[in-house]
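Problem statement: downstream parser choked on a complex file, so we are re-checking the raw output for the 7TS run. The parser issue turned out to be on our end (a line-ending mismatch), but while we're here, posting the original submission so the record is complete.
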Amino acid sequence: MESLSLKKDFPVFDQNDIAYLDTAATSLTPRSVIGKLTDYYNNYSANVHRGVYRLSHEATELYNATREATARFINAEFEEIVFTRGASSALNLVAFGYGLSNLNPGDEIIISELEHHSNFLPWQQVAKKTGAKVVYVPLSEEGRIEVEAFASVLNENTKIVALTHVSNVMGYITPIKAITELAHSQNAVVCVDAAQSAPHLQIDVKEIDCDFLAFSSHKMLGPKGLGVLYGKKKRLENMEPVEYGGDMVETASKDGSTWQAPPLKFETGTPPIASVVAFFEALRYLQNIGFVALKEHEQRLKKYVLDAFSNIESVKVYNPTSETGMVTFNIEGVHPHDVVTVLDEDNIALRAGHHCAQPLMQWLGVVATLRASFYVYNTLEDCDRLIESVKKAVTFFKEAGL
Ligand code: 7TS
């Protein structure tokens, strides 16, 4: 298959000769998405759900069109899609909207050491407030969540299972459908962190059968500051809002108030309308490429880098068997922040750090790693630039005696 390089669609490359390998942190934005953002401000700019005038009606129609497209994208229903500030706030909404009022002392929440802090800290806090206990799925030798290990910690006290669909450091895919089936056999509710899967895999919430699923627009070509919470209709109906105010209310009086039906119950105040409207274009862009072609492309780039790294002494890769386009590595004996300084001189954008996954860093026995993540706009040339720069860094630090 021809390279998927679509660099020309991303204006950031007009100004920057950069090998951008940090999509797992945030993706770049295509012209069509930027165009829709400005189109909203140029031609509508009115609020949604309120005005009885034409511009507000039209803005509401555009806003709802994205909700409909998002629902179709993951095979959900229109009312099951809640717009949030990001995956983090979607996961916090489940923890504090559902967890806080449904957990009791002695109940258990299953998570894992693979979790991003956004699917770890909310559960740790809710456990503290409710007397529930956080239980960790033991990871396999490779660092994976496997069904048997999950079954070993699941029991009748398990009330919530909150797991990452794809690890933001290892890139492994969690067998979430089988885990959900097991969890449901104990009547536990399943919340999936899909921040790293929605950009790369076809998600079908009906097939997975999870109760909640969270992801971010900005990791899948959409605007920053926007996320999605999917919740099964009956779950959202029984979940408490965590923010109160305009738009989410049905009737307000001194004697008590009532809330709108989901999803509006969870979208308090004026939402990020332009971002929602423009997210439509990101979904369209991804669908035009297709997840099969995307996966092939990402795997090709990943394999190319892995082959080259296997010939560079002192490069240690932590996730050689990852199914998604992510290579997490270190140069042995050198702090990744020092390495990334060398790579930055060559205009290579790469994440170095703990990737907001400190429990996983502890599990790996490192303080930090480097991570190269690939997406639609990356090319073999980007990979060559990375490989050459890593070789240069190895030589540099060797000569410096580090
Ligand atoms: N969950 C996972 C698995 C993530 O990778 C991230 C962000 C989040 C949740 C939070 O998403 P947000 O949009 O609310 O910020 N991950 C990363 C990363 O790996 N590097 O920077 C951000």
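For whoever reads this later: DSSP finds 14 helices and 15 strands in the chain.
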